[in-house]
Write a structure and sequence with these properties.
The chain has 5 helices and 10 strands. It is an alpha+beta fold and about 200 residues long.
């Protein structure tokens, strides 16, 4: 069974840990109290930009919002050698990162987002098209390998059509978008360093 991160629960936990009420956090993050309430209750996942604002106020990275408490120790810690979950992600136990866009889901292929590399399987429904060109990481690299279907990667104004087995590497600071313009599902493996969340 795929596990889904409960980002709202983590936000609420961190907010209470800082002894902040919801109205204070919403005001400091520049979002509405209603939006924060929806996030904390799990009624919405919120945009990445909203989560960035909240993470900044809470004094954590956005990646930290996508971790469970037990994920805090890195796999490199020798004390964790007996904990398989610090090293291995079984195919039926992948953590899912949800976005407001229902045509776009990500499954984490590493135990957590606390290391130096982000490794995801991204699944896109047919005709997943977006107008937004977004840079998301300072420096580093992104590599995307098409597992199924076809995707179109746009870097600034340049488009690259990729089919199953094709791979692209680019600097994620370049404004970019990835679309599935076909009538069939598509999925690709995404490796990003440093972690973009």
């Amino acid at each position: 069974m795929t596990e889904e991160f409960n980002v709202g629960k983590k936000i609420k936990f961190l907010r209470k840990e800082k002894k902040m009420n919801a109205k204070e956090l919403a005001k400091d993050a520049g979002i509405s109290y209603g939006m924060l309430s929806l996030l904390e209750s799990g009624s919405t996942q919120g945009s990445v930009e909203t989560l960035r604002k909240i993470a900044k106020v809470l004094g954590v990275t956005i990646a930290h919002l996508f971790t469970n408490s037990e994920d805090s120790d890195l796999a490199t810690n020798p004390k964790n050698l007996d904990n398989e979950n610090s090293y291995v992600v079984r195919k039926d136990q992948r953590k899912k990162i949800s976005f407001p866009d229902p045509q776009y889901t990500c499954e984490l292929l590493v135990p957590d987002l606390q290391g130096d590399i982000e490794f995801l399987q991204v699944n896109m429904e047919p005709n997943r098209i977006t107008e937004h060109l977004i840079p998301h990481t300072k420096g580093g690299e992104e590599c995307d390998y098409v597992v199924e279907g076809e995707i179109v990667v746009t870097l600034n104004e340049k488009e690259f059509a990729l089919s199953q087995g094709d791979c692209i590497r680019f600097n994620p600071e370049i404004p970019h978008k990835i679309e599935n313009r076909s009538s069939k599902k598509a999925s690709y493996l995404s490796v990003i360093t440093p972690v973009s969340f």
